[in-house]
Amino acid sequence: MKNVEDYGLDIHGTMILEEYREQLPVFKKMEELILENLRTCMKKNGLQVTAIEGRIKTEESLAGKLELKGSKYGTLSDLTDIVGARIITFFTDDVDKISALMENIFDIDWKNSVDKRKMHELDSFGYLSLHYICRIPKTLYYDESIPEINEFRFELQMRTALQHVWANMYHDIGYKSGIDAPAEYLRTLNRLAGMLELADDEFSRIRNSITEYRYKVEALVKDGKFEEVNLDGDSFKKYLQLEPFKRLTNKIAAINQAEIHQTPMSPFLKVLVKLGCKTLGDVEKLKHDYSDEAYQLALHQIGGTDIDIIASNIGLQNLCIVYQLKNGVGVQGLATFFDILYGQSTYNVTRAQNLLEQAKQFSFLKQQ
After folding, report:
1. C-alpha–C-alpha distance, residues 233 and 239, integer Å
2. Domain encompassing residue 136
3. Residues 155 and 272 in one domain
4. Is residue 270 domain-shared with residue 193, that is, in the same domain?
5. CA 338/CA 264 separation, integer angstroms
6. In this predicted model, what pLDDT tens digit does every residue of 238-283 receive, in sequence order?
7. Of 150, 184, 204, at which residue does a domain stop?
8. CATH number of the domain that residue 35 is part of
9. Could you count the other beta carbons within 10 Å of the beta carbon of residue 167?
10. 22-36, pLDDT tens digit by residue?
């Protein structure tokens, strides 16, 4: 290990560096506690983040800082960034949500905390991030043998993934090299930062719009206003929660007093769209118009057999089959239907051919 004297610091800086070495186990314990509580908080509150990071300032980095600004710090405890943590989010509004949670976990040093998102000038874009200077409160963790854990401060950064990209890029290109970049290049960097900031805002706006749409769909489905709801993944999921095909499926199960095995219905969304359904009202009409024939089809399928377990999606499946049979779909159309549900296979063509052959015996088709 390098001797502290070898860094060439004055006596004051050397003393702080020696104290750093003595307190390094404390800093490691702090980092462990901070990251553990950050991860627990995100999980408890259902917040998805792209990364939670921690670091302890290296001895070399601290020596460099003391060389430049050593007179600014009376003791090691005056440095607020020996231990650092960072939460990187997907969306800008999540930064504010997380910061509110952090205020309930850690003691915040408001005097030294800074919201850099509010600091850049109107005519420029720059490094955006929320920085809290914190302490670990005794209510969160206390060990009388290491009281320093509750005394040393640490830095907590909260930023979005795009803000993180910008900060690292600017650090590498505009700062880390130690050489001032020409103004024309810095201007280009600032334009790029503006694009990233706009993208951040748009991502949040789109997410909020989708959330509002989902609430609207949920309300319309709950009120039974199906004709006002476009058929898509969100609306179909809400619709299925009403168990709209349960009555038909139970009626089919009663043919053989069969047990109903729960089977996903989400694959039928592609089928319904292919059949021309544009709204949930169209799906309701399909159910209303073809339920009797779907039951008749089930009689041909399992009547007279000893089948005692059926899939919970048989009602919806038979509705789709009957619709296609009554509308003159050919072998290829039925095969495509089976491809969507069961995956592409040459057997699906054979299955479609057999079904069309059997359909000649179905009384509900002969009535056309």
Report:
1. 10
2. 4-204
3. no
4. no
5. 15
6. 999 999 999 999 999 999 999 999 999 999 999 999 999 999 999 9
7. 204
8. 3.30.460.10
9. 20
10. 999 999 999 999 999
Arithmetic mean of pLDDT, 4-14: 86
Could you give the CA distance from residue 81 to residue 67 in angstroms, rounded to a whole number? 16
Residue 199 shares a structural domain with residue 270: no
- Is residue 253 included in any domain, yes or no? yes
Return the structure tokens found at 131: 């920085």
Q: Which amino acid is at 328?
A: G
Number of domains in the chain: 2
321: how many CB neighbours lie within 10 A of its CB? Answer: 22
Are residues 74 and 13 in contact, defined by beta-carbon separation less than 8 angstroms? no
Measured between alpha carbons, how far is 276 from 282 in angstroms, rounded to an integer?
8
pLDDT, residue 56, reads 97
Instruction: Cite the beta strand spans of the chain per DSSP E.
Output: 49-56, 83-89, 107-108, 114-115, 130-135, 154-160, 259-261, 309-311
pLDDT value, residue 368: 46
- The answer as to whether 215 is a domain residue is no
The length of the chain, given as a count of residues: 368
Q: Determine how β-strand 130-135 pairs with β-strand 154-160.
A: antiparallel
